[in-house]
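TOKENISE THE FOLD
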Amino acid sequence: MRETSGVTARIAAAMTRAQSGSPAEAALEINELLAELGPEPSHERAAAEYVRAVAAHHATDSIEALDAVDGCIRVARAIDEPGWEANAIAVRIVTLIRTGEGGDSVADLVAAENALSRTRDLGLAAWAHTGLGYAYDLLRLYELCIPHFELAAEGDHDPLGLPEAPTINRLNLAESSLRWAHELERLGDPSYDEEIQERRRAAHRWAGEAVDAILAADLLGYWPMAGRMWLAASNDAGDAAEAAVILKDCRDQLAKLGDLELAAIAGAYLARAYLTLGRIDDAMEAAGRSASELPPTSDPPVEALIRHTAVQIVAESGDAGASSGLQYARAISRGWWAERLRGLYAVRSALANHELSIRHDAEWRAAREDPLTGVGNRRALDERMSVARDSGRSVAVIAIDVDNLKVVNDSYGHACGDEVLRRVGQLLKEQCRAEDVVARAGGDEFVVVLDNPDERGAGELVERIKTAADREAAQALAPWFAMLRLSVGQASSTDGTSVSDLLTEADRRMYAEKRRRRRAAQ
């Protein structure tokens, strides 16, 4: 994103605060900046609205987050940058899941994936991969979550150049890999043992890379604690006593910073470490504290980890009721797993259907698009005229011929002639309404079809086209553009000409103008 008088640096600073335990400070800074930017759509305003949404999300203010999402989407569409739209929709999905307010997560996931596929900004694409990865993680669709996080980590692109970006990408992978392993553990099925170990090894590897990234970027405060916590939590082969010291310190420091959810997670892993050491009383105390201090808006997988850990530790103490509760939890986990698989199938089906629809639309457009100029081809023109004949509505046709194209081709080459044709196609689209059809009928001839033209519509459009072409020629540096001249003829059904004869009549008038101009030039 381009820099504008330090605006980008201020947005980046607010984003860092929002993600490292100070969302309230970030919200104050970003709201002040939004007031300075004003309502005019821009990349900076889209970024500021997005950071406002992220800050509100971390502050568990769903109303503010959803309002900021709507603001970001409006700006994204105004500036035609689908990358911001993809990121905003991902925040909306996460916010609605965390608050339990519902919403159509599948439709939003499809919309976000579609927007992501259309952006060309690598930084925004990386952020969108992260946002979608987080959304899939909350839905426990790990098969879709992990690839998004891996793509985000692949290039470590970031639209704001945040130094913590590589760390975030790797911590996300560590956390989701470990969540996947825990969900498999809760099934109590030995056939998953190998996969569980594979997920835990992946989590430890990513946590190690996150710690390396933290050291390389010289990050302080929140990030070293988060890195140490996930590294200790995922280290099956490590010293449990050492892990307990690290996890206790991380839990206490994170609680002081105000990140109560991550502090509760650290407490759950601390309880597990104590259990490994045989310190049942300490394990029960740590697990109980995590359960009691867990924020009510925590992610469902986090709550599952903490509640299950607490019951598991009580059961290890010999409590018969807890053992029965653990068996019941296993049955619930298996039902939850089956539900997860149904959700995975539903989302994959929706994504596949959308991709098929996009391919179908692309094929439909390609069959009706002139590959050189990007305007419609003869097939598109014929179909439009057929619709006009069947509808009975008034219609006007403008025929445009590019004069001097043969001279350009002979003097400067066909590549220069193609440039002229492409520019004429662009010029026509610029002057026409969105609902008008612009087509290349063949060679050097273009046609515009206007639906329901008013008395002045076609005539005024002809004058705008001619003026634009003359201006293009007058301002051109390249000689082949300086030679640009257009001969134009128009006919309308409002003049009594039948729709079937409109193209022929417009052609006749266009060639008549061409002859008049030649005679005038002699």
The longest helix spans residues 320-367. The mean pLDDT is 89. DSSP finds 22 helices and four strands in the chain. The CA atoms of residues 408 and 414 lie 8 Å apart.
